[in-house]
Design brief:
- It is a single chain.
- By secondary structure, the protein is mainly β.
- It is globular and about 40 Å long.
- The mean pLDDT is 95.
- It starts with a strand and ends with a strand.
- The protein has no helices and 11 strands.
- Helices cover 0% and strands 45% of the residues.
- A hairpin with a 6-residue loop joins strand 5 and strand 6.
- The strands form 2 sheets. Strands 2, 4, 5, 6, 9, 10 and 11 form a 7-stranded mixed β-sheet that branches.
């Protein structure tokens, strides 16, 4: 069974950092781009970042550019989202997702571009 599992969310003060992890099971991430999305209460999902299967290309939403870094370790079948300088507006449930593609749908793509989803991890930025 193909599965993505996120972890690493939590409560952090403004200006703090978190690193989210996304572990794949039942399939190899080697052949898939990985995206991160987030959804705040009452808002539509927002594409945050995407990384191609070969690590050659990364994309970020303007709202997180310069603060978030996406990476992957194919040997560990894991992708990461390093989040620095967190702001209250970053509060959301964060999801990792994989499309049936080596490349990202430029730049991050839409929800319907992705075929496999994790269950989400809550990130709360508050003092």
């Amino acid at each position: 069974q193909l599965q993505l599992v996120e972890s690493g969310g939590g409560l952090v003060q403004p200006g703090g950092s978190l690193r989210l992890s996304c572990v794949a099971s039942g399939f190899s991430l080697h052949y898939y781009a990985i995206g991160w999305f987030r959804q705040a209460p009452g808002k539509d999902p927002e594409g945050v970042s995407c990384i191609s299967a070969t690590n050659d290309n990364t994309f970020y939403a303007d709202s997180v550019k310069g603060r978030f870094t996406i990476s992957r370790d194919n040997a560990k079948n894991t992708a990461y989202l390093q989040m620095n300088s967190l702001k209250p507006e970053d509060t959301a449930v964060y999801y990792c997702a994989a499309p049936q593609s080596y490349e990202c749908y430029g730049p991050v793509g839409k929800v319907y571009d992705y075929d496999y989803w994790g269950q989400g991890t809550q990130v709360t930025v508050s003092s």
